[in-house]
Amino acid sequence: MSDTPRLNLGDGYKQYFEIAPALEPSRVNDVFFIRHDVYARELGFEPVREDQHETDKYDYRSQHCLVRSADGTRLAGCARLVLADPAHPAAPLPFELTCKNTLDRSIIDPALQPRGRIAEVSRLAVMSEFRRRKGEQQSEASISDQDFGDQKQPRFPYLPVSLYIGAVLMAQRHGIDTLFTLTEPRLAEHFGKLGVNIIPIGGPVEHRGQRVPSMLRVDEVYQGLRLMVRPLWHTINAQLNAAYAQPKD
Question: Sign of the CA dihedral 62, 67, 72, 73?
């Protein structure tokens, strides 16, 4: 057995990746490039575009999160936080339209929530070279049982989890109480292994595969995290804070 101490998740993460809000146009363009590479070129969910950017009508009111390799040379993944439309606060979030017929409004009715206190995590994508399972073609950033390995060879799905944590931390900065997302049916189970309580709020819909509308309470995420995951949270929080503190051109 090796005597080399095992890095905690936070130290392991920063050895390989850096996460930051996309605050500059060049970084936002990196996000759009990742989305095009995954959603259009690889998975065929969107049309291939000459400019190699995948965008939609919600990006103007979104905050984007970007992961690159630690040396800054390779794009790894992205996610976005769709906020209320400042000009039209009652305008629905994307999932409210996609799931309008399957939401269980006895659990929560998004239309009745203070619009400035809710947001949606969407367009989460991981470049194919960084996915755990080579040749995976069915999902833009899925997590499966294999991603956690087994007792002999434990693993951890760094990128999808780090992007969700990044989105939660960005949501905190914007005063968001409740985050909504469309998840693969088993995602709540996999996040449950990490202590994250993702709550289904309606029946499944067909949206690039079967998806379930779900929510999580922003202020409850950290308290529920397993102790092994908390160093990762702290590393991501520190990287985001450093990025926000940098002077902008």
Answer: negative
